[in-house]
Amino acid sequence: MEDVGKIACITGDEKKEITAENSLIGRINTLALGQRIETAQLGNVDSDENKEIKEKTEQKYPKSGKRSNIEVDGSSQNKENVVIETSNAILEEEQATLKVIVTQATEYFLDPESIYSLKSNVRGLAVIINNEEFTLDNRYPTRNGSQVDVKNLSDLFNQMGFEVIVQTNMKRNETIKFLIDFSSNPAHDSADMMIFCMATHGPERSKLMSSDCLELDIETDILRRFNNENCPSLRGKPKFFIFQACQGQEADHGVPKRGSQTDNNNFGKTGAEGPPGSALKDPAWEDM
Fold first, then answer.
1. Sign of the dihedral through C-alpha 231, 234, 239, 243
2. pTM (two decimals)
């Protein structure tokens, strides 16, 4: 079977011809992303490959739980109808997970006296708080796919020498108690650094949402817990914070793009969504 082929994908009354790469299973996965595939017709597949395809698809998408339910039926015209019922969120999560590989440095490229020392056996603790589901789900919808960020960040921090702690769907009082306990963790004494990540909804600037839909103030409730008064164990050590959240409901209409819109360097870059009919733009707030 060729590595690159064409698949006739029937979605409702509309028929599209799509070119996909990699194996047949890879093509099916690619088609499943972004839309629900009702029926796909695959031509010129012999009977031996029918069995192999069915085995591979059933292994990857078993007929239970959230995984896909895939049936393969051969026809007299040596074609098969592949009926795929799948959760787009699951497929997108599998496709979006990065393969993170960190190469250890062997020497300093700057004057070691002018940078923080990161030589401890365990670099430090890295916390990831991921609020995915919320009590007021009509106002704050489920953040589908957020586990992808958790997986990617965990792989990165682990390979960088950090001990990773993951918390999910924390209420406001649970978050405050966790921050107090974490800032006084004795592991900070022998560590050279600390990382704190929180991914959630953001109702307005400098505010984060707990899973029970109560606000957390970034400075008062989080950053202050790690100053020299409340967290002396990390005094003189870098404290790195990542907040993945919207900062209110106001739309970012963007700024004019730099360079030509046909410039190859800008190809595929997502600009901010401006008013209907407006030219493609860059976000006004980025790289911060």
1. negative
2. 0.59
